[in-house]
Specification:
Blueprint: H1 12-16, H2 20-27, H3 53-70, H4 72-80
Amino acid sequence: MTIVWFYNDLNQAWWAQLKPEVQALLESRAWANDMSAFPNLGIFFQNRNAAGLPEQLNLLGHLWCYTVMEDAGATLLAFLK
């Protein structure tokens, strides 16, 4: 059995491609900002309103897609071993 662990960490190459206003939102540490801990999303009490959840999941999906495709060969080899 092979276990592959993915940890939510910010991919700097992905980050560099974001629009400045998205970077500013993710960098904001304002209490009302539900994305302030991105990409490390809390399990409990993360969202003070449910409206931010689709955006969080969308960004997280794009981050992981970019990260996996950026180094697809190494990722694929990890699954095939």
